[in-house]
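If your schedule permits, I should be very grateful for your opinion on a structural question. Thank you for your consideration; the sequence and its tokens are set out here:

===
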Amino acid sequence: MWTALFPNWKTFKICFLTPEAGKILKYLLNEPFEIKCLKKPFSHRNFILKFLSPNFSSIFLKAFIPRFFKRNRVKNYFKSFKTLINLRIPLIKPYFLFWKNPQIAFLKKEPYYGGIVFPYIERGFLKKQNLFLNHQKEKINYDLIKNLVLFLFSLHEKGIYLKDTKFNNFYYTSYEGFRIFDLDGLKLYKRPLSKFERLKDLSTLAMSLEWEEVENAKILIFDFYRELFPEIKEKDFKKFNQLVALKRKKRERKLLKF
């Protein structure tokens, strides 16, 4: 039950973001469900909540762990969310958010100080197979990659630095286009991004494509973006290459920990 995850549930502030949010919360409070943990970083836990009744769709929950003198990431998410909505940026909307003071939760040894509740989406996020037009990985899906770069450019022009631009963090359908989901690390500026900020944001995308053996991934991303932003010159490829290498080393170190 929901109160097993959040024993002091009545002390949380709640913000509904969709018309069906109240109904979803009622289900969570009253209907039995199974819990599966997908991810266990230091700062939070990612859960899938699967209702035992087939009449209810599964839920994705991101629950945040209180740590002393750490910022309230739920409130930061909410601030970014409102700004993106005002800028008309396509994103996946959560049903609702909830939070309390993380320092008080830490002192009271509560497991979580807040969370974000999303619909659980099984299909739509980009996967490895979307990057290629055949199983042998001989034909790269250039149109998809080019359109993703164009989408990132549109965000950069509005002063949005995503940070985690790995391809599988983007939701995509042919009729809806691209939508963003993960707002952790997102930064918002009142100006278009600088050249270095753009290269840094693109480097994570290039690294993730390179990781999946997309041939000449760095050159593809760099050249596609240069067509949109002429301030990036050929000489800037050296810096871009260095940024991609740093991102790759970071991922390799992370994998060695497991």
The longest helix spans residues 237-256. Residues 66 and 110 are 8 Å apart (CA to CA). The chain has two domains: 2-119, 128-250. The chain has a mean pLDDT of 92.
